[in-house]
């Protein structure tokens, strides 16, 4: 008789886990190492059901000052659910040589408070799954600071080139559209 409640609990747990996995969009399947941390960012757990801006960054790029605008965007809309994820990459040969230096540039020089990952590949066959999925829904980053606006269901609403500032009206419109997609 005692086995029955345990069996029910095990089956329920398996059902909940599979239901949660089914709710996680393909774009958010996986994890990335958090910058200067032993922690990993579970993309699904952290971002599923939330509007998101994903940006590939570089510490020594002419667009690096956009960190200030990205932080301002995050602060402006975070209470409405917006998340921002910065993904440093050396694909365009402008990232710092160490995660310590990357972290200093992001956190100290620009005051970034949104999540940042360790340096990742964002283009080509070796791109991390997140960027392969972003690319499949839009286009591959052509340079550092390409911005992807993703709705709460994991669909790319729009992507913007490096030259688009974080306060550009078209980017803000896409962010508002993504925020409106929350259930």
How does this structure look, described?
With 183 residues, the chain is of the alpha+beta class. It has helices at residues 3-23, 43-47, 66-77, 99-109, 129-137, 169-180; strands spanning 31-33, 40-42, 52-57, 83-88, 147-150, 156-160. The strands form two sheets. It has a four-stranded mixed sheet, covered by helices on one side. Strands 1-2 form a two-stranded antiparallel ribbon. Strand 3 (52-57), helix 3 (66-77) and strand 4 form a beta-alpha-beta unit. The chain is globular, with a radius of gyration of 18 Å.
Secondary structure blueprint with pairings:
Elements lengths: L2 H21 L7 E3 L6 E3 H5 L4 E6 L8 H12 L5 E6 L10 H11 L19 H9 L9 E4 L5 E5 L8 H12 L3
Parallel strand pairs: 3-4
Antiparallel strand pairs: 1-2, 3-5, 5-6
Beta-strand proportion = 5-15%
Tally of alpha and pi helices = 6
Task: Assign the CATH topology.
Answer: Glutaredoxin
* Major sheet summary line: 4 strands, mixed
Strand order of the largest sheet: 4-3-5-6
Radius of gyration, Cα only, in angstroms? 18 Å
Q: Which labels suit this protein?
A:
about 180 residues, alpha+beta, Glutaredoxin, four-stranded mixed sheet, two-stranded antiparallel sheet
In short:
The protein is α+β, with helices and mostly antiparallel strands and 183 residues long. The chain contains 6 helices and 6 strands; from the N terminus they run H-E-E-H-E-H-E-H-H-E-E-H.
């Amino acid at each position: 008789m005692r086995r029955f409640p345990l069996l029910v609990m095990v089956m329920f747990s398996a059902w909940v886990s599979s239901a949660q996995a089914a709710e996680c969009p393909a774009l958010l399947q996986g994890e990335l190492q958090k910058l200067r941390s032993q922690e990993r960012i579970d993309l699904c757990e952290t971002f599923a059901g939330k509007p998101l801006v994903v940006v590939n960054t570089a510490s020594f790029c002419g667009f690096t000052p956009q960190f200030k605008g990205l932080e301002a965007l995050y602060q402006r809309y975070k209470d409405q659910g917006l998340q921002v994820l910065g993904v440093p990459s050396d694909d365009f040969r402008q990232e710092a040589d160490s995660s310590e230096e990357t972290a200093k540039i992001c956190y100290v020089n620009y005051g970034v408070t949104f999540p940042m990952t360790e340096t990742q590949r964002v283009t080509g066959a070796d791109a991390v799954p997140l960027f392969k999925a972003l690319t499949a829904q839009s286009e591959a980053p052509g340079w550092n600071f390409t911005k992807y606006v993703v709705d709460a269901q994991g669909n790319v609403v729009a992507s913007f080139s490096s030259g688009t500032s974080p306060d550009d009206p078209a980017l803000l419109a896409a962010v508002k559209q993504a925020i409106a997609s929350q259930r």
